[in-house]
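## retry 2 of 3
previous attempt timed out at serialization; input unchanged, resubmitting
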Amino acid sequence: MRDYVLFQAQRLEPSQPFPTLRRLVSNWRKRRRLRDLQQLENHVLTDIGISRADVAAVLSQPLSVDPAWELERRARLHRAPTILPYRSFPRRGVKI
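## retry succeeded, writing output
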């Protein structure tokens, strides 16, 4: 969440009139373009690194959320390697 807030704060330009309205309209336009992703086949979406559920979840978010950024975040989570928890093994010769 912190990354999202920082990203949005950097994008807002205080010199622009009505920055909130501008961001909402921009997010609405991005959603219209992302709806086309729902028409793609599953193997194409997998090649991109997202799933149909990701697209649906992003499109169901509030209009204040940037859908392109959120979809990119979800794709990065899919690509992130799973980190196994650290297990401490006993040293040789040490009785437990």
